[in-house]
Amino acid sequence: MTALLNFFEKEMRDFGDQRREFLEVRRRAGHFPLATARGAAGDPEREIRIWCSNDYLGMGQAPCVLTALQEAAREYGAGSGGSRNISGTNPIHVLLEAELAELHGKPAALLFSTGFGANDGALSVIAGKAPGAVVYSDEKNHASIIDGIRHSGAEKYVFRHNDMAHLEQLLAAAAPDRPKLIAFESVYSMDGDLAPLADIGELARRYGATTYIDEVHAVGMYGPRGAGIAAQQGIADEFTVVMGTLAKAFGTVGGYIAGPQAIIEAVRAYARPFIFTTSLPPALAAGALAAVRHLKQSSAERESLLRNARLLQRLLDERRIPYRSPMSHIVSIAVGDERLCREISALLLRDHGIYVQAIDAPSVPPGQAILRAAPSATHRIEDVRTFAAALDDIWTELGVARTGDQAPMGEAMANSGGAQ
Ligand SMILES: *Cc1c(COP(=O)(O)O)cnc(C)c1O
Asked: Are 257 and 265 in contact (CB under 8 A)?
């Protein structure tokens, strides 16, 4: 037994009920959000409904996406064969980059194998190359943004979440001639709340800052052609670099940035997660391309998604079940206590065949566990009603706090120490 192995053996024994359990879910193409899963080892497979997938628009099973993917796989095979620099640029990569640049109204775009790699690679270069650059990063930014900024080595200031006065104070404190970069998301991934985009644009202009906007939870879903929240608000031009994923509303995998030619060129030349990894399989790029093209001209999926989100929010309001962001398609149900949250998630699965993962630290701050419910365009109205009724049953069964409750009620609440 080596010292290192010994350390992990002990560490994992002490981990107790913090150990991560992954439910094995079989999504069935054409039937999502229907899937099958086993409750526990040895249980028979049963039908469940998924309420925590980022395949928000069901593009992961859209016929146009599957057809494009299958045709490209037949034509080009499975993998891309290498990194873009060495051996892996396929005509579909080039087409997809042109399509994404056009979607966002930017001169150029660059694909990465994941959204995580896009943020990590792009920010490490954009924040890292200019001497004396300063970065301003929203407190709730995604781990991939944080890592990218860290890898840039730039001086960094974290501003309080969506707090424009704080951002301005930090901007004003730096010498006017220093290169500045503001990095933020349009829709925050855990609470689903929106950034004050117009205000950020205004501050950026006033202080001569470059902007980097992560629209991962908005591309495909907002704006008349699915270009995101900034496009929906008609202010996409105010932001220098937009970053998105092909893995959420576009239903496949991969990440990208779009922006000015010079920045795209520099990232292509220097970003390690671009240079030193195998490029996207052409078939997946073809599937993503079909999804982007489809959602540029079809709004039916966006409309169903928002209909389902608004219905769920109304049903939760009626039942006084607290959730975070009324304007969002992400319905994060506020529970607080980690153990209670996991218990609710387990009961939803066991008694109602509903799968919503409990989310706790490090994705959210300790003591602020949520059930991050993600309606999709493919849920039926009946699915939404069944889900709200199941939550209501469990809230009663466990005595979980409801909006407006005066004092904690029931034992579960007494243990929950901070339900919202
Ligand atoms: C999911 C996510 C990413 C990473 O995207 P992937 O394509 O899943 O790697 C980046 N930013 C935010 C805000 C995310 O939620």
From this structure: no
Among 191, 235, 195, residue whose Cα is nearest residue 214: 195
To the query of whether residue 248 is one of the catalytic residues in this protein, the response is: yes
Interacting residues of 48 by C-beta distance below 8 A, sequence separation 6+: 25, 34, 35, 36, 37, 349, 353, 354, 355
**Considering just the CA atoms, what is the radius of gyration of the chain in Å?**
22
Specify the pTM: 0.94
Gap between the Cα atoms of 92 and 97, Å rounded: 8
Instruction: Extract the tokens encoding 232.
Output: 């929906």
For CA atoms 72, 245, 106, 156, the dihedral sign is negative
Ligand 1 geometric centre to CA of 290 (Å): 20
Task: Say which amino acid occupies 292.
Answer: V
Cα dihedral sign for 192, 193, 198, 202?
negative
Distance of CA 308 to CAs 183, 327, 332, 374, 409, Å?
30, 13, 14, 10, 31
CA-based nearest residue to 238, from 184, 162, 193, 275:
184
Which residues in the chain come in under a pLDDT of 70? 17-18, 39-41, 406-420
Ligand 1 atom nearest to 117, measured from its CA? 9
CB-ligand 1 contact for 357 (6 Å cutoff) = no
**pLDDT (tens digit per residue) in 3-56:** 999 999 998 888 776 677 788 999 999 999 999 998 666 778 999 999 999 999
**Which of the following is catalytic: 106, 140, 180, 248?**
248
Output the CA angle 390-393-396, nearest 5 degrees.
150
